[in-house]
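Researcher: Re-running this chain for the archive, since the previous output was lost when a drive failed. Same request as before.
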Amino acid sequence: MGDRISSWGSARPEPEPKTMNPIAAAMLLALSLFFGMLVLLVAGRRIGAQRIAREGEGAATGTGAVDAAVFALLGLLVAFTFSNAASKFDSRRDLIVEEANTIGTAYLRLDLVPESRRSALRESFRQYVDARLAFYRVAAQDDQRFREGFSRVNALQLEIWNQALAATQDPGAASGAPMLLLPALNEMIDITTTRTLATEMHPPVVIFGLLALLALASALLAGYGMAGSRSPSWLHMIGFAAVMALAVYIIVDLEYPRLGVIRVDAFDQALVDVRSSMQ
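Model: Regenerated structure tokens:
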């Protein structure tokens, strides 16, 4: 912890704020995928119909293995990305609860320092929790407030650490104050780094590109497989495109749980409850 405090600026570089709304990009991707798949379903059906007209009903012979491989790969990639996004969503909720617990523990251990220093520390804690709540409420939506919130949290962490360090060295402090309070503060500060990095952990863009490419390829192959019917089944075509587009959108929505429909905001109540207990 000493190294972290002594070189605060270099040890904790400010993460890059988001310059583009990922949910808006996800909606654009989902809509593009939906209409692209419809176009390729129709195109694939026409290609298949033309080949059947030239070669007869045996034109599709031997293509089943290729279709199965592409669809299997698509299903595997959807399952992988969805499972990964859902797992991180749960982890982010757990981190909120963990941070609330670490703050609550550190706050209770302020009783180990002299009363003369306790009031200032408690006020700093109240300001710190307010800053943490404000940071996550606005950081995902406003770049300027993101930077301001990040700087505010770092400044309060340094202030609390210096206050606590001086308080534990006060002659009136309990004998075990340094061993009990400082590690608790260390955990409270470390969890902010963990949460910040958790918000930056996303699959490479190439994964989503591959997912979209496989969905489009599957649409083309599915359309080709429908070529034997007299008229297209729009129910199946629209349903297939809609389900794939929705799946991609939900995956991205889970990756950014403070911007879209699926959110972790309700778990901020854990921090709100901690703040309410700081009387």
